[in-house]
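Review this today:
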Amino acid sequence: MTNTNAPKVAFLLKRGVEQPELTEPWKAVEEAGAHPVLVSEEPGTITALIHDWDRGDDFDVDVTLDEADPGDYTALVLPGGTLNSDKIRTNPQAIAFVKAFFDADKPVASICHGPWILIEAGVVPGRRMTSTSRIATDLRNAGAEWVDEEVVVDGNLITSRSPRDLPAFDAALVGALRAVD
């Protein structure tokens, strides 16, 4: 049974999301008493990947991007996955959705390749961040201070490197949700 008064957390993703980067934070959000919501461009289901190559599970989309209002959510999670992040960063509507969370100073948590989306949203200059090392140069070129740490919290922004850092990422996300309450 879902608590309809629980804070809602948007998970913005599409096909190709790295499955543990979706499922582990999702579980942490639920265990913290919040309500995770899968937001994607199209209705139906999305298929996750494991290690960017192997087919994962299918997940039901709760709300389409057209229907999603950033004002309805307490926080935003941007799971990684190379394909997922690369596709989302090319969608102007998705970028506007992400930017709205920064404009409202709401918590945003992004892991692995997810910061590619933040680069496109123009919200990384001057931020201390981490990510997969594969996009470290992209973040530096966009004006971020990239560091090789399991989790980095810079104001409302939480970033982590990879699935191996999920315990620290989840703890920082839950901490940010509790601070908002």
Remarks:
- The mean pLDDT is 96.
- The longest strand covers residues 54-60.
